[in-house]
UniProtKB/TrEMBL annotation, chains A, B:
Domain Topoisomerase 6 subunit A/Spo11 TOPRIM: 243-413
Active site residues according to the UniProt entry: Y162
Role of this protein: Component of the DNA topoisomerase VI involved in chromatin organization and progression of endoreduplication cycles. Relaxes both positive and negative superturns and exhibits a strong decatenase activity.
Annotated catalysed reactions: ATP-dependent breakage, passage and rejoining of double-stranded DNA
Database matches in InterPro entries: Spo11/TopoVI_A, Spo11/TopoVI_A_N, Spo11/TopoVI_A_sf, Topo_VI_alpha, TopoVI_A, TOPRIM_Topo6A/Spo11, WH-like_DNA-bd_sf
Assigned keywords, A-Z: DNA-binding, Isomerase, Magnesium, Metal-binding, Nucleotide-binding, Nucleus, Topoisomerase
Recorded name of the encoding gene: TOP6A
GO molecular function list: ATP binding; DNA binding; DNA topoisomerase type II (double strand cut, ATP-hydrolyzing) activity; magnesium ion binding
Compartments it resides in: Nucleus
Name of the featured protein: DNA topoisomerase 6 subunit A
Domain (Type II DNA topoisomerase VI subunit A all-beta): residue spans on this chain: 198-234
Key word Manganese present: no
Species the sequence originates in: Clitoria ternatea
Amino acid sequence: MADNRKRRRTEPSVGEELPFKNKLKPDSVILQILKDFSASSSSSSSSSKTLTLQDLTLPFTCREVADLSLASVRSNIESLNLRIAHSILSGLGFSFDVPSRSAANQHYVAELDRIVLKDKSSLRPFANISTVRKATITARILELIHQLCLKGIHVTKRDLFYTDVKLFQDQLQSDAVLDDVACMLSCTRSSLNVVAAEKGVVVGRLVFSDDGDMIDCTKMGMGGKAIPPNIDRVGDMQSDALFILLVEKDAAYMRLAEDRFYNRFPCIIVTAKGQPDVATRLFLRKMKTDLKLPVLALVDSDPYGLKILSVYGCGSKNMSYDSSNLTTPDIKWLGVRPSDLDKYKIPEQCRLPMTEQDIKTGKDMLEEDFVKKNPGWVEELSLMVKTKQKAEIQALSTFGFQYLSEVYLPLKLQQKDWL
Amino acid sequence: MADNRKRRRTEPSVGEELPFKNKLKPDSVILQILKDFSASSSSSSSSSKTLTLQDLTLPFTCREVADLSLASVRSNIESLNLRIAHSILSGLGFSFDVPSRSAANQHYVAELDRIVLKDKSSLRPFANISTVRKATITARILELIHQLCLKGIHVTKRDLFYTDVKLFQDQLQSDAVLDDVACMLSCTRSSLNVVAAEKGVVVGRLVFSDDGDMIDCTKMGMGGKAIPPNIDRVGDMQSDALFILLVEKDAAYMRLAEDRFYNRFPCIIVTAKGQPDVATRLFLRKMKTDLKLPVLALVDSDPYGLKILSVYGCGSKNMSYDSSNLTTPDIKWLGVRPSDLDKYKIPEQCRLPMTEQDIKTGKDMLEEDFVKKNPGWVEELSLMVKTKQKAEIQALSTFGFQYLSEVYLPLKLQQKDWL
């Protein structure tokens, strides 16, 4: 097997005439560039790391949640119940005080580079015909979460829904109240031990523990390790990587995993296979925080590629109350960028015309604070909207299946060509 | 961490009044039942294993493909090219002889319990206006596969498409010809080193090698190991499991992984997270073949659950030429079966009414040979269509989050309640 791998590396590559292959310097030069980058990134992240909501003087109060231990969640629920009992015994009935998660209560904070929730909330009284159902659902979800705390197990939203279908009626209702409960208890949804389906995989220079088992991601073959659904059982992260490579899609991930790209340029390769799921976002954030590594993103050159980058970077509006725990600041846009299409001479037939919807999404994104604060991104996105052309990462295969791992990425790294 | 786990197991379960919990015998009794089952299954599978297409006297000839080494694929392509060159030099021009993959050329063989391809084929001449494009695409795909053989790498269908967008125009065209080429060369699509995206995960009592790395699936935490996209780099399977538990969906998989069900009842747990993908089907078949273990399926109680079971069991029509390599014979339907709904007293509100489409799909499936040959399945499916009720695996959560792993599955195993 080892021979086999070596054979693949030493065999003369088919296309010596590959565009820009002659610009590549020896790996040692590129490695030095990466080491400098990694060092500067880790020092800057440790100095800027301290900036939190508390450090800012914002004209309004913000609500943020934190990862809480099971014991704290349990005691928060019990305190809440005591307050309710007290209110009932005082003859006042009871209401839940539920933070608003609506768009009007959301705000992008440039200093933190993420969306946060303001502090508006509304009462959900039990003794009111319009809110009695929701109040009852809220009480029931609190009870179920309390059970999870006692048992110390994790369940999915779907499991939660099925414990009381008669009351919840449909899953949208139990899901929505679940987010309400997280806000009410000031904890992340993962602290409630309710997890989403896992989708992501990781491979490369990372060792970590998953529920007590030590996992060495350099020894995970081509398939990689499935990212665990419950981040609270993940720990002991160790790595000699110089950066994290965040990949939008499966196909590019597979190419890099098979070529063991992480052995040539020490890195950790991670993908959520499309839309970022909560587990992958938490895992990425934890890697960045624990290992202090820069994150470089490889996404399609279309508005959705940038959108995916933005979800990792500054959060989705739906879960803005949890943005500080779910987002990974300072992700660099490595490629494939609109300007790469001409620069790397991607043939016309490998580019795709943008649809009306694509162009609209692109224009909308130009108005987003998250994009606007990075002039390089504005320039790239404007170019995309102007040329009305998009391209997938896979378009690079036009120069050969391994062009991505053998020329494009090494050259990008060598030229520090990220934004 | 270890303490934590122990605590969860010894803590008194909340619902001692759980339906049927009192019927459960000690684990040692259930384990003995499983050992007997596993032994009988492995002896019957080794005796019946020899039945192949060649053993049958069918009224027509069938076409089957096999896993070929890269060297064989390469030499098959080279021989084909020589024949073409000869034909051209003889002044005859050239045609590809392409096996038909249409429904009319497919046949369910009850003795083998899978769909096979008959031997109809059609000519694809280069010098004909109606076929010149397809003939050219075929030649190009053959050339690209030949390159993959030389390099010994794997690519996705998407990569393949992008190597010549101008010719292929859209991916449906290169995908279709890729299947043609596999049939022409009498090899599986995975032998061509073109792989699909990975989706499945595996956890439990299995050790195997993935691209040279040894993977111990009991030490993969809760996340499990991502099933490798390329089965040809998977090997050295070892296991002390008594059965393989094939799970339709994520949520049930997660429950069993977190509860480390495989340590209580030695098994391997595998899921494709919904629709079975080629990589998971190949992996399941390899486990069954190499380890000679019985396979028990846990799917939703709806027509799609049974459909998914049928794809693992007898193949999809789309890839019937490859059915002998992709299918896993003799999968038992463990649950959730329509008769379980009443038997386990699943409350009405956790059952869902079947839609018109569901009922139609159910009735159509009653006509399928694959279902008809198993009277127990016909009975179950008829019951489903009659009651017009379906239910997800998750419906069992109505009795508590761990009812699945602590009562339902152990009792099913104890009662050998599979069909």
